[in-house]
């Protein structure tokens, strides 16, 4: 039996351009979907594609415009990650920083140079960049002109983006993810795919957009392996198994259906074809996907090298409509599990659920796994020096790392690395808040955008440094 994590295990942390970068129109960057998603009561209607907001206005506050200003502070931030001993840093590119309109003939050199500088800073410290090509990010021009991912044209624009970045960064970046939480387009269609709905069949549009993203992901994989055979391309899933509320077979069946809804995307990206259960579901829903000749072959021949995922919580469901009516709060509706504690935002804390999820994914796909998001969003109260005594975060991460270690040592799951979410405080994707903090590093900024943006180390900073130093032995 192995003693623990492999010597090359990639410890690090994760962020996304749309939640930390800021500099939203600097360096010739174009407007992105996240730049028109406000904080406050209109946030969810916009993210769901129910409320049309194509430009920012004076009445709302848009957290992405400055975020935590990684754009101007990346050297300091990466220096702090290096101090913790990061082996890898997961970040995403802003599509509109590289192609401001998305359909531009030539890329924006200033945007490309910015990411050159970021990668060089990482490599200076021996930190391996793990790059998400698009993380809840579509140039607004493409939303307005072609309806974003509902249009097949998006595949070509995404291809062009991939060709440019793979060629440009082929000696700086080895690990790539095609889409962040690709299954999110079913739950938050505007944030996941830039979709806005009129009176129309929303499910049909979502699954057609999903097909376009799956084709784009396969194209990216094909292009990547041609440009640099050493590249490792992964897909990315918002994961977490769904438990049955009771042992009633109807509840067990319902839980299986809920899991399949998420596996659907990865089944295609990892196995290379649409599963039969999905084809039958499309038949029942009268959804007829428009496919082009060669699509099936492309999917079959360009499966991903590894599977990455986010894990925050497990879910719970019932076949009884009255019982299920109690679900509320989060993007993924779930019943409250009486056996679990919950975070301040109602997310259920289930460390063993991570081991269950790891095993479910590994059993299903037999490909290397990578946990690229995991963490606890909490209200932190800093002292006058910005120091936070965040024992609750340390406990959350410690318990999850323990079960992750069990999955590797006892169950034999092949795990590449672990990058907890929001290694530095950033804007919450779901709520747009700053007070929902995940980081090892505190950033002085509040929900209204006030603050000095000063960075300071929390207690968890030193703790995580020790975890990395000992390769997960000292927790």
TrEMBL record:
Q: Per its UniProt record, what Pfam families does this chain match? A: Glyco_hydro_1
Q: Which GO terms describe its biological process?
A: carbohydrate catabolic process
SUPFAM superfamilies, A to Z = (Trans)glycosidases
GO cellular-component terms in the record? cytosol
Question: Which InterPro entries does the record associate with it?
Answer: GH, GH_1_N_CS, Glyco_hydro_1, Glyco_hydro_1_AS
Which residues participate directly in catalysis? Answer: 373
Give the EC class as a word: hydrolase
What domain of life does the UniProt record list for this protein's source? Bacteria
The molecular function terms in GO held by this entry are: 6-phospho-beta-glucosidase activity
Which keywords does the record carry?
Glycosidase, Hydrolase
Which residues are listed as membrane-spanning? Answer: none
Q: What is its EC number?
A: 3.2.1.86
Task: Tell me which family the UniProt entry assigns to this protein.
Answer: Belongs to the glycosyl hydrolase 1 family.
The name this protein carries in UniProt is: 6-phospho-beta-glucosidase
Lineage of the species this protein comes from: Bacteria, Bacillati, Bacillota, Clostridia, Eubacteriales
């Amino acid at each position: 039996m192995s003693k623990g994590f492999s010597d090359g295990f990639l410890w690090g942390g994760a962020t996304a351009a749309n939640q930390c970068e800021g500099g939203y129109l600097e360096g010739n960057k174009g407007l992105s979907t996240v730049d028109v998603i406000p904080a406050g009561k209109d946030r969810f209607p916009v993210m769901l594609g129910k409320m049309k907001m194509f430009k920012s206005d004076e009445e709302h506050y848009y957290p992405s415009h400055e975020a935590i200003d990684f754009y101007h502070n990346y050297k300091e931030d990466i220096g702090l990650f290096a101090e913790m001993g990061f082996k890898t840093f997961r970040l995403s590119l802003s599509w509109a920083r590289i192609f401001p309109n998305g359909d531009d003939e030539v890329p924006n050199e200033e945007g490309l140079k910015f990411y050159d500088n970021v990668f060089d800073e990482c490599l200076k410290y021996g930190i391996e960049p793990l790059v998400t090509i698009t993380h809840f990010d579509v140039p607004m021009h493409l939303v307005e002109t072609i309806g974003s991912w509902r249009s097949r044209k998006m595949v070509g624009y995404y291809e062009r983006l991939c060709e440019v970045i793979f060629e440009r960064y082929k000696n700086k970046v080895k690990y790539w993810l095609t889409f962040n939480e690709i299954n999110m387009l079913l739950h938050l269609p505007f944030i996941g795919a830039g979709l806005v709905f009129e009176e129309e069949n929303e499910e049909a549009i979502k699954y057609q957009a999903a097909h376009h993203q799956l084709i784009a992901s396969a194209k990216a994989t094909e292009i990547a392996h041609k440009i640099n055979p050493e590249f490792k391309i992964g897909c990315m899933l918002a994961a977490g198994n769904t438990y049955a509320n009771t042992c009633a077979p109807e509840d067990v069946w319902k839980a299986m259906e809920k899991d399949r809804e998420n596996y659907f995307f990865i089944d295609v990206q990892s196995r290379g074809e649409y599963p039969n259960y999905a084809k039958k579901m499309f038949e029942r829903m009268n959804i007829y996907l428009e496919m082009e000749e060669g699509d099936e072959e492309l999917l079959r021949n360009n499966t991903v090298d590894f599977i990455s995922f986010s894990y925050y919580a497990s879910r719970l469901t019932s076949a009884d409509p009255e019982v299920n009516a109690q679900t509320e709060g989060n993007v993924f509706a779930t019943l409250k599990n009486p056996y679990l504690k919950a975070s301040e935002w109602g997310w259920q804390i289930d460390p063993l659920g991570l081991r269950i999820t790891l095993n479910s994914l590994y059993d299903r796909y037999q490909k290397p796994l990578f946990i690229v998001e995991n963490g606890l969003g909490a209200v932190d109260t800093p002292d006058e020096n910005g120091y936070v005594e965040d024992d609750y975060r340390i406990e959350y991460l410690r318990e999850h790392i323990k079960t992750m270690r069990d999955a590797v040592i006892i169950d034999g799951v092949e795990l590449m690395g672990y990058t907890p979410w929001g290694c530095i405080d950033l804007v919450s994707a779901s709520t747009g808040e700053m007070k929902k903090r995940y980081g090892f590093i505190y950033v002085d900024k509040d929900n209204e955008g006030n603050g000095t943006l000063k960075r300071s180390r929390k207690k968890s900073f030193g703790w995580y440094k020790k975890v990395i130093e000992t390769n997960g032995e000292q927790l």
